[in-house]
Amino acid sequence: MTDTLRVSGIEVFAHHGVFAHERRDGQRFVIDLAIGTDTRSAAASDDLKDTVDYGSVVAQVVEAATSEPVDLIETLATRLADVVLRQARVEWVEVTLHKPEAPIDATFQDVALTITRSRA
């Protein structure tokens, strides 16, 4: 049995993208996480060591998102999922990576990719 912990709207400025200007100038990315974890022991103990420390997870995700540039949001989303899955109490993670300033020659609100990864 798992519960879902959500952290939404994590904003980072990074230099990912296929085009040279994306790598050079950078842009804003927004990350939403849904984390599957069993929270029963944390609820019983009321102790941080018995749950997913979402502050620590967010710090690690921000670090991973702003590190070495990649071309594709698919690559970056997978990197972020791998970071979250390193947490012992995480059973699965859903990462939605938004690229609201993607270089598209049209009026649009957002480009977003959602991936789900699990330990199994």
UniProtKB/TrEMBL annotation:
State a single Gene Ontology molecular function.
dihydroneopterin aldolase activity
The protein's annotated pathway: Cofactor biosynthesis; tetrahydrofolate biosynthesis; 2-amino-4-hydroxy-6-hydroxymethyl-7,8-dihydropteridine diphosphate from 7,8-dihydroneopterin triphosphate: step 3/4
Q: Which example biological process does GO assign this protein? A: tetrahydrofolate biosynthetic process
What EC number(s) are associated with this protein in UniProt?
Answer: 4.1.2.25
Catalytically driven reaction(s) = 7,8-dihydroneopterin = 6-hydroxymethyl-7,8-dihydropterin + glycolaldehyde
What's in the keyword line of the UniProt record?
Folate biosynthesis, Lyase
Question: What is the top-level taxon of the source organism?
Answer: Bacteria
What the protein does comes down to: Catalyzes the conversion of 7,8-dihydroneopterin to 6-hydroxymethyl-7,8-dihydropterin.
> Per its record, how is this protein called by name?
7,8-dihydroneopterin aldolase
Q: Which organism is it from?
A: Nocardioides mangrovicus
